[in-house]
TrEMBL record:
GO molecular function terms listed in the Swiss-Prot or TrEMBL record: glucose-1-phosphate adenylyltransferase activity
Domain Nucleotidyl transferase span(s) in chain numbering: 20-154
Protein name in UniProt: Glucose-1-phosphate adenylyltransferase subunit GlgD
CDD domains: ADP_Glucose_PP (cd02508), LbH_G1P_AT_C (cd04651)
Chaperone is among the record's keywords: no
């Protein structure tokens, strides 16, 4: 039986979400009312029956560890395999590896001990609902050394400028990896690689002083290795800026878009928090809004996303905004095109207005 082990590589993901990543890494940023961005990567792996998942984390991962715990929410709290949060080992005086190759080298035991034949490597910034068993089937059929996943986007946005793009021939072979802003074949920062090939490329990259496994070990080896391309056609959001976070979050207010990301047969899991149902008082007026549990709403809310435990007082107005956990909005406050991080308080009568293309962001635990 062919098996896959999963690696979520956060090492090269920069903290690009401004105020939202002051106190956490991007993978731990709340998303869609009750999830974190990393939930999609882990859920896709566990839905594909992957039983061993390692997370390569380097900085600001306290919030991430608090959220993931032992992996119970994803059925990864198990005796054999399970969830491993792996920072690099800084105490090996013989280690000459750099960049994310430190993670691959210093945590090589995870790769060696797994019974998997294939290693799936993914980031956290590409939000999707993908069946990795389909990717594996195509990888095996192609006979390739590596299969990379891409999305042919209908419309290019600014966040796609930073993403790698693929040139693909008629046989689904990757012929070039680059940053052409006009190419719509967006690489989704995920690939399946044969375990033995991964080993060889890690050793070769370290021997040549490389710092980035994908850029140096995969992109840099074209055309020496056989790279196949798998086209993902489902719902996709690339989040690498505040603007892309706000825009893609707002799209989830469309029920059809929700169904594309949150499928009944391929669910997205998250850490469970048992709270009371949300309460709508007689003065409340709520339209086209995602409301998580534990909220108390007395004011006017429209076209917004409220995370757990949000309180909106009577007379307050919230429009086109994302309000994270336990925020409190006092009476007669007005918020429009605003993102409030967790535990913020907006005083009575205060007005905060951003622009749809540039939302007003309030960092965690701020009182205004």
């Amino acid at each position: 039986m062919d098996r896959i082990a999963g690696i979520i590589n956060l090492d090269h993901e920069q903290d690009v979400l401004d105020e939202l990543t002051y106190f956490r890494c991007g993978a731990a940023v709340p998303f869609a009312g009750r999830y974190r961005m990393i939930d999609f990567a882990i859920s896709n792996m566990t839905n594909a029956r992957i039983e061993s998942v390692a997370v390569f984390a380097r900085r600001k991962y306290r919030s991430l560890m608090d959220h993931l715990e032992q992996g119970k929410a994803w059925d990864l709290d198990r005796k054999f395999g399970g969830l491993f949060i792996l920072p690099p080992d800084w105490n090996d005086p013989t280690d000459i590896s750099r960049g994310d190759l430190q993670h691959f080298h210093n945590n090589i035991d995870f790769i060696n001990r797994t019974l998997a034949n294939y290693i799936l490597v993914s980031g956290s910034q590409n939000i999707c609902n993908i069946n990795y068993q389909d990717v594996l089937a195509e990888h095996k059929e192609s006979g390739a050394d590596v299969t990379v996943v891409y999305k042919k986007v209908d419309e290019l946005y600014p966040e796609h400028d930073r993403a790698h793009k693929l040139d693909i021939d008629e046989n689904n072979r990757v012929t070039a990896i680059h940053n052409d802003q006009h190419n719509s074949n967006v690489y989704m920062d995920m690939y399946i690689i044969d375990k033995n090939v991964l080993h060889d490329l890690i050793d070769e990259c370290i021997a040549h002083g490389c710092t980035h496994f994908f850029l140096d070990g995969i992109k840099g080896k074209l055309p020496d290795i056989n790279i196949n391309a798998y086209e993902y056609t489902g719902a996709h959001a690339l989040i690498n800026s505040i603007e892309s976070y706000y825009r893609n979050s707002s799209k989830l207010l469309d029920p059809e878009e929700q169904e594309r990301f949150f499928k009944e047969d391929n669910p997205i899991y998250t850490k469970v928090k048992n709270e009371a149902p949300s309460k709508y008082l007689t003065t409340s007026n709520v339209t086209n809004t995602l409301v998580a549990n534990g909220c108390i709403i007395e004011g006017h809310v429209e076209d917004s996303i409220l995370f757990r435990g949000v309180k909106v007082a009577e007379g307050a107005v919230v429009k086109n905004s994302i309000i994270m956990q336990r925020c409190e909005i006092d009476s007669n406050a007005v918020l429009e095109n605003v993102i409030l991080d967790k535990d913020c308080s907006i005083s009575e009568g205060r007005t905060l207005i951003g622009a749809p293309e540039k939302p007003y962001v309030v960092p965690k635990r701020k009182t205004m």
